[in-house]
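A further point concerns the way the authors explain their paired sequence and structure data. Showing the layout once, in full, would remove most of the difficulty. For illustration, here is how one protein appears when written out as sequence plus C-alpha cells:
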Amino acid sequence: MAHLERKMVPLYLTDQEKEQLDLYAERLGISRQKVLEGVILSSIEDLEVMDKIGFMVSEVRLADQLKMFKGLTMQDKNRIAGDNK
C-alpha cells in the first residue's frame, strides 16, 4: 500500500479549482487525487530547476514565477521543435 508511505496534508480549494481538477480528472480517466499528485510532482520539479538556476525571487509571487518559468521553457520547446523541421 503505497499511500502508507505518504503524508496527508490539508488543502483548501476554491469551487472553481475543484471543478477544474474534476474536469481534468474526468478527461484523463483518473481520480482527482492522481491529478493533484501529478500537478504537485511537476511543480516540485519546476521549483527545483528554478532554484538551481537562481530564478526564484522572494519579492515576486511564486505563482507568477512558475508562470514565467513555464513560459520560458515553452519558448525553448517551440524553438527546438521549429529547428527540427
